[in-house]
Amino acid sequence: MTDRFDCYYCRDNLHGKKYVKKDDKHVCTKCFDKLCANTCAECRRPIGADSKELHHKNRYWHEDCFRCAKCYKPLASEPFSARDDGKIMCGKCGSREDGNRCQGCYKVVMPGSKNVEYKNKVWHEECFTCLDCKQPIRTQSFLTKGEDIYCAPCHDKKFAKKCFHCKQPISSGGISYQDQPWHSECFVCNTCRKPLAEARFTSHENNVYCVDCYKTDVAKKCHGCKNPITGFGHGTNVVNYEGYSWHEYCFNCKKCSLSLANKRFIINGDHIYCPDCAKKL
């Protein structure tokens, strides 16, 4: 005699029939659909014995119901994400919903796409542009002014000091002379072109000269000693008279060597004399 093999609920004989084993109980398909089947989280209908069931975190779906809530793409064999509101989304739609938004176009920056991050903000690479020329900065250096972003050339053109000599922007370094900015390479002797950034120099008629060139080419010659009157060190004070110049210390009586600076004097030929010595000539 054959042992009975019945449905746990309706007691129908299951020999030769399709059945489901649920919690170690044998159940006919009719009772399973009615009493044991999980409810699909999407369509709210039972997931019958003849349906393929998918589950995630204590929730269940028909295979055909397990789709992206945004684009309806089937996700049975695709990567997906579960949102806090219970929606299931494909990777692409999930990134669009939850991903960082570009500060330029305000669209989502998709994972893996080329982007620029700066101060906890993100841009598509093509949206990270100079405020002035509108060109993408990409791998170039850039500078900011407040919240505005500039490529280096536009920043220099707009904000950098201009060299007094060449009128071009000074992007870094440089020197200041008489409250005017200069490129170091522009601050050179007007005659020999020697760099003057760390050298002694003087100016004449808006040009700068090294000491040697100033002495040779620019400085007046003392009518007494015939040496240049440079203004460097001894001999800073100058006496001028009828187109001639003297170091103050050279402006002396030819005969008695009395200093005649700020005193009466008499010129005889190329020489100067005090009044007393002039009488004896």
Automatic annotation (TrEMBL):
<keyword id="KW-0677">Repeat</keyword>
<dbReference type="InterPro" id="IPR042997">
    <property type="entry name" value="Fhl1"/>
</dbReference>
<keyword id="KW-0832">Ubl conjugation</keyword>
<dbReference type="InterPro" id="IPR001781">
    <property type="entry name" value="Znf_LIM"/>
</dbReference>
<dbReference type="GO" id="GO:0044325">
    <property type="term" value="F:transmembrane transporter binding"/>
</dbReference>
<keyword id="KW-0440">LIM domain</keyword>
<feature type="domain" description="LIM zinc-binding">
    <location>
        <begin position="38"/>
        <end position="99"/>
    </location>
</feature>
<dbReference type="Pfam" id="PF00412">
    <property type="entry name" value="LIM"/>
</dbReference>
<keyword id="KW-0863">Zinc-finger</keyword>
<dbReference type="GO" id="GO:0007517">
    <property type="term" value="P:muscle organ development"/>
</dbReference>
<dbReference type="GO" id="GO:0030154">
    <property type="term" value="P:cell differentiation"/>
</dbReference>
<dbReference type="GO" id="GO:0005737">
    <property type="term" value="C:cytoplasm"/>
</dbReference>
<comment type="function">
    <text>May have an involvement in muscle development or hypertrophy. Isoform 2 binds to RBP-J and plays a negative regulatory role in the RBP-J-mediated transcription in mammalian systems.</text>
</comment>
<keyword id="KW-0221">Differentiation</keyword>
<dbReference type="GO" id="GO:0008270">
    <property type="term" value="F:zinc ion binding"/>
</dbReference>
<keyword id="KW-0862">Zinc</keyword>
<keyword id="KW-0007">Acetylation</keyword>
<feature type="domain" description="LIM zinc-binding">
    <location>
        <begin position="162"/>
        <end position="219"/>
    </location>
</feature>
<keyword id="KW-0217">Developmental protein</keyword>
<protein>
    <recommendedName>
        <fullName>Four and a half LIM domains protein 1</fullName>
    </recommendedName>
</protein>
<keyword id="KW-0479">Metal-binding</keyword>
<keyword id="KW-1017">Isopeptide bond</keyword>
<feature type="domain" description="LIM zinc-binding">
    <location>
        <begin position="100"/>
        <end position="161"/>
    </location>
</feature>
<feature type="domain" description="LIM zinc-binding">
    <location>
        <begin position="220"/>
        <end position="281"/>
    </location>
</feature>
<keyword id="KW-0963">Cytoplasm</keyword>
